[in-house]
């Protein structure tokens, strides 16, 4: 057996669904019976679940933990030609944040919870426990691979995997339409929230706001989405204890408007984030 097959069987025994990759880090193409999804394969129907074809068809949906499939004659040719190994993170109850360059890694260190990391050719995979929707280019140099996606297996990595938090989940959240016409100025956005404060020092909140301002300022594209996700991340962390004031929110609005956002859009994004979090 080749090395990829050995590794695949070992991972499958640990409950990690696997599939072979051909050159170019791509899954093997569909067999003639499944070409162009003529078989009505699950990805074509937008349904999570395994592919029923005995060949390694349909990309991520071919991933399996069944050793009888992995080491079957129908998969033998694929393993012989395989240039790599992939797995379905969602099928293993995992989420991979794929950081494609040094700038994305620096952003992750400043913005995301520490977790297990796996070096890649150009960057790192950050592995979290839990599943969420997948998305490409959720911000510059960052993809999310979890449900209905595959990630390359590049080794176990280092460190312990942290549980998914709202900050990570917010990466895949698209800003919803404004739920109501909001005023142009901010007025006591969280004055009614008075939960138990988890922040030991004011500096923790100040650092969070400074990091959020930096995230908005550093946005080179998708500014609307970056502003919304940043507001969502700040509110998910600081929005329930009453520490967040108009002054903090005004700093975020100022950073967003410096990137070309209108006061109306800032207020709508803030309102939508509050609504999403139930605040």
In short, what is this structure?
With 279 residues, the chain is of the alpha+beta class.
Total DSSP helices: 9
Order of helices and strands: HEEHHEEHEEEEEEHHHHH
Mean pLDDT across all residues, rounded?
83
Helix content estimate = 25-40%
Strand content: 5-15%
Low-confidence parts lasting 5 or more residues at pLDDT below 50? Answer: 43-48, 180-189
Shape: elongated
For the terminal residues, how far apart are their CA atoms? Answer: 56 Å
Could you describe the 3D structure shown?
This protein has 279 residues and is of the alpha+beta class. It is built from 9 helices and 10 strands. It has helices at 3-13, 67-70, 73-81, 102-111, 166-169, 202-217, 223-238, 246-258, 263-277, and strands at residues 18-22, 26-27, 84-87, 94-99, 116-119, 124-129, 135-139, 142-145, 151-152, 162-163. Strands 4, 5, 6, 7, 8 and 10 form a 6-stranded mixed sheet that branches. A 4-stranded antiparallel sheet has the order 2-1-3-9. Helix 6 (202-217) runs antiparallel to helix 7, helix 6 (202-217) packs parallel to helix 8 (246-258) and helix 7 crosses helix 9. The chain is elongated and about 65 Å long. The model is unreliable at 43-48 and 180-189 (pLDDT under 50).
């Amino acid at each position: 057996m080749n090395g990829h097959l050995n590794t695949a069987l070992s991972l499958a025994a640990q409950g990690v669904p696997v599939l072979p990759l051909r050159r170019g880090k791509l899954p093997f193409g569909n067999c003639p019976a499944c070409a162009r999804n003529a078989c009505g394969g699950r990805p074509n129907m937008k349904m999570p679940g395994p592919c029923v074809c005995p060949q390694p068809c349909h990309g991520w949906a071919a991933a399996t933990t069944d050793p009888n499939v992995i080491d079957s004659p129908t998969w033998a040719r694929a393993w012989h030609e395989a240039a790599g190994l992939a797995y379905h993170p969602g099928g293993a109850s995992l989420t991979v944040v794929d950081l494609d360059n040094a700038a994305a890694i620096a952003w992750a260190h400043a913005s995301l919870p520490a977790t297990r990391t796996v070096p890649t050719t150009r960057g790192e995979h950050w592995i979290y426990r839990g599943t969420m929707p997948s998305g490409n280019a959720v911000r510059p140099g960052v993809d999310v691979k979890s449900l209905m996606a595959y990630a390359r297996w590049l080794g176990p990595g280092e460190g312990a995997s942290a549980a998914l938090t709202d900050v990570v989940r917010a990466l895949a959240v698209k800003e919803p339409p404004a739920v109501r016409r909001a005023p142009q100025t901010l007025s006591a956005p969280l004055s009614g929230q008075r939960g138990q404060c988890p922040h030991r020092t004011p500096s923790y909140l100040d650092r969070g706001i400074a990091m959020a301002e930096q995230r908005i300022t550093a946005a080179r594209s998708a500014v609307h989405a970056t502003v919304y996700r940043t507001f969502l991340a700040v509110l998910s962390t600081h929005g329930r204890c009453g520490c967040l004031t108009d002054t903090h929110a005004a700093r975020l609005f100022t950073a967003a408007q410096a990137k070309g956002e209108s006061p109306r859009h800032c207020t709508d994004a803030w309102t939508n984030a509050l609504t999403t979090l139930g605040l």
